Amino acid sequence: MSETSTPIAVPHTEKEQKPKSKERPDRGYLVICWNDPVNLMEYVTHVFQVVFGWPKARAEKHMLQVHQTGKSLLVRETFEKAEHYVHQLQSYSLHATMEREE
Amino acid sequence: MKYLPSPKKDLAEPRLIFQINPREEALLLAILRLYPVLASNHYQISKDPKAARSAEQRLLEESMGQLRAEHRRKLDEMFRAPQRFFKDAPGERRLVLTGVQLEWLLQVLIALENGDEAMARRNLAEAIRPPIVLIGRKCHHAEWLILAFGVLHQPRLD
Question: Contacts of residue B43 in chain A, CB cutoff 8 Å?
């Protein structure tokens, strides 16, 4: 369906629009999805496709990782983007958190 | 309840059609009236206990609160005018949704399932939400919820 295959737009930060120096944005925040007893596997795959715009195979790989190991590291991002993704995933009732990379 | 794949796939906004009987329709509406079940603070931004009172946690709760209010507003619209969604067809009753409406309904149903699970874990489900009584018999709404979700999710798998 067209409405769901389009990835959700991530808000652009000022830093991204105007790169003034060679400084890289701090992409040290991990978005993690945790296993839960409710969400169906197909649904989790669908949500990953919607939120990240991933192809089905990649979405399924992460879904299986969640299912088999209890969690999956989905993306490593800047603070703002990681926060955005967690909000999106939680709006679909997935158990997602953002953690600072150690 | 059953998904009826539409032959008209070239429409700008294709309609997704489900066959639904009157009892299922009443049950779906009764279950949707339970929304929202989960409190905003159910959602956690991080596993780090220090994050529980952080600005990011408050932002997440605010965001989830807004989403719940928006879902609730759309549900109220549905309850006010169910004929926008439930239609009579020759010999059957149908639930007709756009892709956007289906996405919204799936979000609401999965939130209800998660709420049901969360309350069951706290042994609160029966105290807060007694079984729905429809047409003279108790209905196990959690089981039906899962079934309805599976059927509604089917167009997404095709």
Answer: 90
Contact B107 A87 (CB under 8 A): no
B37 token code pair: 């079940």
Question: Can you tell me whether residue B66 is helix, strand or coil?
Answer: helix
Nearest residue in B to A5, CA atom: B156
Q: Contact B21/B1 with Cβ under 8 angstroms?
A: yes
CA B139 to chain A, closest CA, distance in angstroms equals 20
The dihedrals phi and psi of B126, each to the nearest 5 degrees, come to -70, -35
**Mean pLDDT confidence for B45-60:** 89
* DSSP codes of every residue in B37-56: -S-GGG--S-S-GGGGGSHH
What is chain B's mean pLDDT, rounded? Answer: 79
Question: Nearest Cα to B99, choosing from B149, B155, B25, B19?
Answer: B155
Does the structure show a pLDDT above 90 at A57? yes
| Minimal CA separation from A14 to chain B, in Å | 19
